[in-house]
Design brief:
transmembrane helix; transmembrane; membrane
Length: 55
């Protein structure tokens, strides 16, 4: 079974249409994409909770 980061990276590449990473850089790109998506989701959840708390 493929790594979770590889699956996330591959689905992001296909859905968004970004350029594939150079050969040998796939693992770094997969980790970067996965961490960026997780950080974005955490930031959105944090902003939502902050707004919910301030209302």
């Amino acid at each position: 079974m493929r790594r979770l980061t590889d699956l996330v990276s591959e689905s992001f590449i296909w859905s968004v249409g970004i350029t594939r990473p150079r050969p040998g850089q796939e693992r770094v790109a997969a980790l970067y994409i996965t961490l960026t998506l997780i950080a974005s989701l955490l930031a959105a959840a944090g902003i939502f909770l902050l707004l919910l708390h301030s209302i």
